[in-house]
Amino acid sequence: MATRPDNARLDDFIARVTSGEQRAGARLMRLVDDRHPLAFELLQRLYPHTGRARVVGVTGNPGSGKSTLVDQLIRAYRERGKTVAVVAVDPSSPFSGGAILGDRIRMRDHATDDGVFIRSLATRGHLGGLSRSTNDVVTVLDAMGYDLVIVETVGVGQDEIEVVKIAETSVVVLIPGMGDDIQAIKAGILEIADIFCVNKADRDGVDRTVKDIRGLQLLAGHLAEGEWEVPIVRTIAPQRYGIDRLVETIDKHHEYLEAPDSERQQGRARAREAHVLRSLTRDRLVAAMERALAGTDGGPEALFDALVARTTDPYSEADRLVRSVVEVLRGEEEE
Questions:
Q1: Helical H segments across 237-312, by residue range
Q2: How far apart are CA 305 and CA 330, in angstroms?
Q3: Nearest-CA neighbor of 204 among 172, 177, 227, 222?
Q4: What are the residue boundaries of the structural domains of the chain, listed by start?
Q5: What is the rounded CA–CA span in Å between residue 162 and residue 153?
Q6: Tens digit of pLDDT for each residue in 129-166?
Q7: Which of 8, 50, 126, 170 has CA atoms 20 to 30 A from the CA of 135?
Q8: Contact 18, 144 (CB under 8 A)
Q9: What is the pTM of this model?
């Protein structure tokens, strides 16, 4: 797709994606991840076919066994006849900037299953542990018809908070012995968790970890009537211990959101779309700003030197840049 194909070819390509063809879906995801100029238009065409998949976020600190847990969730949902897609957000490779495919290697048992699709993405230094492409990849997988899309994040420090913005249900994975770590990240955890999963529950200290979580919940105050009480599920992923209960709990949260006369699901969907819209708008504005900055007289370095020399000020230059951004965006529309 080096040059823009005609509309008939684009329509055919979208039809292949929405029919669930994995090759077409993978190609579109590559265009999205590479920020190909055609990706934006293809996603526009694809959007009306979305909104059906359940999106589950799985996040937690490195070493908590998230990938093994996700592997078991795939197996459990496949046994229930559901199709599953996974977006595994990996640390960026220091050499290529691409994703380190450890998660896909660990999930290789599903490689021959047509009902499973696994995509790894590099964070590329993006704040929140999610690559810029994650929202768009979820959109593609949704349009492809997968029943469940699992987003597994890097899960470093406060970055977990980002996952809740695209997930219907967020599972926070902890392990025994975290102690002070739980206290240190309590604010973020309490904000995003719909379910706490204490993995590696055969380790010493599991009761203390559960107690610490419950203590944080008590400190957060009582729930209003009808609100979701965040459960704690113990698992030992390699042994499949607790996996069925975790699946049941995820499903119960879905039922809670979709309860009759409830606007919870609509509220989650509205929040996700607001996040996507803001992210897309921010990305476009930042890109236009960089182009406008590059087009300043003498280049950006000359402008920065002028600011240092106090021959101009950042407030005036910011106003000037905003006007230039408008011109850049108008030029793009005319093209």
A1: 243-257, 264-294, 299-308
A2: 29
A3: 177
A4: 1-49, 50-257, 274-334
A5: 9
A6: 455 678 899 999 999 999 999 999 876 555 556 666 78
A7: 8
A8: yes
A9: 0.84
